[in-house]
Each structure stands twice: as C-alpha cells, then as structure tokens.
Amino acid sequence: MQTDEEARLQALAEHEILDAETDPSLAHIVELAARLLGAPAAFVSFVDRDRQVFHAKVGLSLCDTDRDVAFCARTIAQVDILVVLDASQDPRFRDNPLVTDAPFIRFYAGVPLRTGDGHAIGTLCLAGPKPRRAFTGRDRRILTDLARLVLDRLELRRVQAARRATQSRFEHIADTSSDAIICADAHGRMNFWSAAAERLFGHTVADALGQPLAILVPERMHGGHEGDLCRIAPGTATPLLGRTVELTGRHKDGREFPVELSLCTWTENGQAAFGAIARDVSQRRMVEERLFRLAHLDALTELPNRAVLRGRVEAAIMEDRPAAVLMLDLDGFKEVNDAHGHAVGDAVLRLAARRLRTCVDTMGVAARYGGDEFAVVLPGVGDPLTATSKGQAMIDALSEPYRVEETVLRLGASVGVALSPAHGVREDELLACADAALYRAKMDGRGRACLFTPDLREVAQRERACRDGLRRAIEQGEFVLHYQPQVSLSDGALMGAEALIRWQHPELGLLMPAAFLEVLDNGPDAARVGDWVLRTACAQAQAWRRDGVHPIRIGVNLCAAQFRGGGLVEAVATALAETGLPAHALELEITETIILHHDPEVVAALQALRAMDVGIAFDDYGTGYASLSLLKRFPLTRLKIDRGFVNGLCEDRHDAAIVRAVIDLSRSFGLEVVAEGVETEEQRQRLLAKGCQEAQGYLFGRPMPPAEFAARFKLCRHHTRPSSPAA
Ligand code: C2E
Ligand code: CA
Ligand code: CA
Fold first, then answer.
1. Best mutation site among 557, 639, 642, 678 for ligand 1, i.e. most ligand atoms within 8 A of its Cβ?
2. Which residue, 202, 438, 457, 660, has most beta carbons within 10 Å?
3. In this predicted model, what pLDDT tens digit does every residue of 21-68 receive, in sequence order?
C-alpha cells in the first residue's frame, strides 16, 4: 500500500515540473501576485521528499531549501492559507535559519496547491524581509484565487506529461514491433510511420509522413481491399475496419508482396483517426503454397494429382451434367525409361503433361494418375463420338516425337473413355470403366482410343483379381515348374526338357500360363518371376545331370521384360555359376515378339549369351512375320517348329510344306530343329522322314512335375526345393 506521502510525491512527479525550466504562465502569475499584494518576493514552491523547490520566483535568490526549514512544509499540512505577519515573533519560526540568516524572512503568506485528488504538492506564497501589520481578507482571496490559476496551469502540464508518456510508450512499442504500424488522419494522410513500416515498404519516416495511404498499394488494384484502404475518409464506413485482410502491398521500389492488414479507428481531437498494423506474409504464403502444391499437384509434371482428379470427376457428376473421363497411358514409356534412364523418362513425362494440358485447355482437367498414366475429365461432354475424338486428338499430341536434349524419342499413347451417366454415376465407377477401356485399347494394339462397353467390366475385374493374386503368388511362392521331355525322334532317347511355368493357386488349383502369363508380363514383376524360372530350371537340370547318365539340356522361356532391364546376361551367368550347370546345357527360348520390339539391345544380349555358349532357340517358328534375314542377324542355335504346323502335318499340304521348309532352312543355316506338339505316331514318322531329329509333345510326355519327370526317365530322384520369386 502506498502511504499518503508517497501518493503525494507521485502526484507531484506526474507534473514533471520539479527540475523543469520555469513555466512562463506560472512566472506570470507569480509576478501578478507580488505586484497585487505588494510583496517583495513571491514564488511557487513544491515540497519534495526532503527539499523545497522554488519555481517561477520573484525577488528571491534561493533555488531550494531543506524541507525541515521550509515555511511551505507547514502550509501544505494545512487546509487553508498560512499567514505569518512577523516570523521573529512566531515561536514556530523564530529560530528558523531563513529568519535568523539571509534571506531574513519576517513576513510569509502561502496557499497550499492541492490537486484534484487532494494532494498538496506545493504552495503559492509571498515573503518579505519586513514584518506586516495586516494581511486582509481581500489579500487572502486574491492569493487564493491566484493559487487556483496556478493549479489550473499545473493540471494542464500534468495532462501534457501524461500524453507525452503515452505517446512515447506507443512509439517504443511501435518501433520494437516487427509488424509495421502506421497511423493516418481522417483523410488517409499518414501521420505515424514505425521502423518496421520503413523496412516493409521502403519509405523513410520523412518520405511517408503526410503521404496518402494509397502509396502503400499498387495503383492498378483498386477493386479489392487495396481500394478500400485508399478510400478511407471521415464519416464513411470502410469494410476493412475490425477485420484482418490480405492485400497486395507495394514497396517503394515497385516490388509487390502479400500483406496482412488490420485497420482500426478512433477519434482524435474530434476527428477520425486510423491505425493500421501490416505484416509481410510472403513467407507464410510460400509455405501455404508449397503445402497446397504437395497436396494437390504432382511434383514431377505439376499437373493436378489423382486426388484432385477424383474431386473433379465427382464435382462433374454432382452438377448433373454429362461428363467424359479419359484414361491415358503412354505406349513404350517403360522402354524409354529402361534404355535412356530416369532423367530422360522424367523429361518425357513433363513434356507429355504439357501437351496434354494444352489439349485439354479450359475444357476440363488433366491429371497425372501415376507412372506413365494420365487422366482427363471433360465436364459437359456426354457424346461418345466427341469424347473418343478428343481422346484421339490427345493420342496424336502425345505421339509427336519427344526431343530430350539431343535424343529424339517416339512414343505412342492409348486412351480409354468412359461416360457419365451412361457408364457410371460414381467417381470410382467411372474411373474403373475408363481403366477397363484403356486396357482394351492396349490389347487392341495400342495407339487407340477405346470407348467403354459393359463386357469390359468383367475383363477388367478378372484382370485386377489376377494382378492381386499374382502379387501374392510371388510372395507366397505359388509358382511351380513342370518339365516336358524333348526326345530324339529316331530312338526316343531323352535329349532335354522344357521348363513350363504353372501357378499352384490355393483356390483354383493348378493354372496354365494362358490364365495369367499376359497379366504377369504386363505387370511390374515379370522380370523377377522370369529370373526365378531361370534359376529354378537350371538348378533342376543340374541335379538331374549330376548322375552323368543323362546329360540333358534344359529349355527356359524368356519374356520381354527380362531383356528390358539390361541385366539378362548377368542373371544367366549368375544362375549358371550358382547351380554349376554348364552353359551349353542351357537353351533359352525366345519368341518373335521379343525380337521385333527390342532390336539392338536384344541382339547384343543374345550375342553375349551365345559367346558364353548358351543355346538360343527360336520358339513357335513360322507363326509370325519373322523374316529369313532375322535368322542371319540373330545368333540362334535352334528353331522350334510351331505345334500348329505339326498338328496339320498329316492333313494339310501347306502345313507339310512349311514343316519341310523349316527343316531345310535350319539345315542350311546350321541350326538344330525341334518339332513341338507331336501327339501321334504318324506325326512322328512323317517328321522323321523329313529329316527332323528331335521332337516334343504329348506323344512323348506331357509337361509334368519334376518328381514324375525323374521317375519316368529314371533320373536321380533328387530335385530342388521350391522357392519363391520374392526371395
Ligand atoms: P510354348 O513355349 O510354346 O510351350 C509349349 C506349350 O505347348 C506348353 O503350353 C505345352 O504344355 C504345350 N504342349 C506341349 N506339347 C503339346 C502337345 O502335344 N499338344 C498340345 N496341344 N500342346 C502341347 P503351356 O505350358 O500352357 O505354356 C504356354 C506358353 O506359356 C508357352 O508356350 C510359353 O510361351 C509360355 N510359358 C510357359 N512357361 C513359361 C515361362 O516360364 N516363362 C515364359 N516367359 N513363358 C512361359
Ligand atoms: Ca517354349
Ligand atoms: Ca512353342
């Protein structure tokens, strides 16, 4: 708790007068008092803790005195005026050094100066070296009235001091704030400008004061909040008041940046005044933008991502208008990626995305769906012809050559089209339909736009189930190899075996390659499974060869994916090294599809394999377009006559002619030959007659599990443990 004396001292301090220069109005009052009341000395005195301070004095040489001796110290303790006509006769002052020594005061009259709160902070007094006979009632009134004038003047000083304190408090806070603080008068002219405002907008205090708020925003942006800020004026309500808004700020150098602004108003001298707190939110905007991009855009192509596309499809459906959804897939992208590396692949995707965006323009939204898949939604397009022709236009755009640095790449695209409401009224349904149509387009030979038809739904479902199942099959090791004997036609001796993959499905039983191979080959795990087949078959063959009685050969089918990664030669070398199988006992079977799609790399890989002494058989020979020149360019060791020709060998003259031609051909190229699909004794006879040495077919044995194969051909019982391609 403050004592009364402390409160009094505090009240005195608030006037900021103790050591201040003489206040001219007070000096004037003091002079008036001396003249009106005929006193040689008059002054205002303030009673501090230990001393009395004289202010605006006339006829007095003292500056201050000890509080103990001060007449005024007694005056302030009184309610009313203190008059001492002759101090030397007054027991209270008789011995006071002010009386006994200079200035030898004999007469004193003082009125306490009492503030509104009742604190007597000083006095207005008269003094003289001569005693007085009287100080009349009129004299007292005059002095008391003058004291009131002094008080009024003091109160004014106190208010000014308080205002100064508030102002400096505000200025200190304003200048330490990292937010810009700006004040403006009723007409929007700035009259306060903080240090942060200078940092934010570039104008110095001197530049800014007196300028309109309009200089803080770009001139051209008068439509939004920026305009509201420029238009603040007395009496007009601005929508900015009491809100925090984001607007575009303009730096002195012309640069623009996002600003968060809060505007408030108050009344100052009867006029509206405005205060604005402004903050640079570039950083925050950048973070927000980054987060937005992360959540909505594909990082590589900057196209909207799958989630955004789904939203757009849903929105199009909700609008109750027709809509087309197109799924696009680049043909040949995997090959580009494998052959030229990911950097080139990424560049191609970016180019493709740009072309697609141009194609779609404002008609709808193009998104990256994943990998080399894109999707487009075209709201308002419900007509199948329009939708497919748009799809075809996209294919054309995506099929233009891609120039990446010095390389020119050619890719194609396939498109699946689904329409709402015809094919589905849910977002996921529509996308699935478009996906099914895309699959069909690819199956139909790529480079096409295919419209969804209901029968595709089943195909797609089956495929999806198969894809999921394959994944599990790989992890659980559900694949097995069966072996089909290849025998000498003349004496039936076992020459080799072809490894053929089977899927031991937990529910569906043993599945043939026809049921899953296409899906597997188009999926991401083709090479992995192919590698597993290779290792398993080599290990099995070597186990059978170990007894030395049957030095059989093993035939392993390859798929295109195994050539793509570029690791085939190494995979073969590893399989041979790990199993100990001699290279000449391995025969890799390749088909025309592999050869036609990947010319140079395939030739190189095959040559390397040939150099290792691995055999290369051309499977299903005669069914495709393989020209004779292929036989020269590829380092083959064997042709396998397709079972279709063998099947017709005895009934069809043409088939018989082809079989003969293939046999002759292989002879002239120095290749061995094996006839596939021999089912009858008659076929065996005919083939033998035509000079074919080896054959494979049900007549000699169906593909069978390894144990059965070993028993049948009296091979060593040992067979390799099954493993999983995932291992
Ligand atoms: P392919 O390489 O032409 O294999 C020969 C196919 O003919 C096998 O069918 C086999 O069971 C069948 N076959 C053998 N003898 C006869 C016969 O006398 N009459 C009839 N009608 N058919 C006979 P499968 O096992 O269904 O294999 C089908 C195809 O799947 C194979 O054709 C091959 O291209 C592919 N394939 C099988 N296993 C693998 C593998 O491990 N990797 C790869 N990439 N492809 C494989
Ligand atoms: Ca084969
Ligand atoms: Ca074949």
1. 557
2. 438
3. 989 999 999 999 999 999 999 999 999 999 999 998 898 877 788 998
Residues 297-452: name the CATH superfamily: Reverse transcriptase/Diguanylate cyclase domain (3.30.70.270)
Distance 575 CA to ligand 1 centre (A): 22
Distance separating alpha carbons of residues 678 and 570, to the nearest angstrom? 35
Q: By the 8 A CB rule, do 489 and 697 touch?
A: no
Answer yes or no: same fold for 2-164 and 177-284: yes
Average pLDDT, the chain: 90
Ligand number nearest CA of 559 is: 1
- Average pLDDT estimate for 302-314: 91
The CATH topology of domain 177-284 is Beta-Lactamase (3.30.450)
Long-range CB pairs of 199-204 (<8 Å, 24+ gap) are 200/249, 200/251, 200/259, 200/278, 200/280, 201/249, 201/250, 201/251, 201/252, 202/251, 202/252, 202/253, 203/252
Domain boundary assignment for the chain: 2-164, 177-284, 297-452, 486-500+526-704
Dihedral of the CA atoms 588, 593, 595, 599 (nearest 10)? -140
CATH class of 486-500+526-704: alpha beta
Tokens 């640079």, residue located: 280
Of 399, 415, 414, nearest to 325 by C-alpha is 415
pTM above 0.90, yes or no: no
Residue with the nearest Cα to atom 35 of ligand 1? 513
Mutate to test the pocket of ligand 1, among 500, 516, 595 (most ligand atoms within 8 A of CB): 500
Q: Which residues line ligand 1 (CB under 6 A)?
A: 484, 499-501, 512-514, 517, 530, 533, 557-559, 589, 619-620, 643, 677, 679, 696-698, 703
The reported pLDDT for the residue numbered 716 is 67
Among protein residues, the one whose CA lies closest to atom 20 of ligand 1: 677
Superfamily the domain 2-164 falls into: GAF domain (3.30.450.40)
Q: What is the pLDDT of residues 338-387, one digit of tens each?
A: 778 889 999 999 999 999 999 998 889 999 998 899 999 999 999 999 99
**Does residue 179 carry a pLDDT above 60?**
yes
Read off the amino acid at residue 540: Q
pLDDT tens, residue by residue, 1-15: 567 899 999 999 999
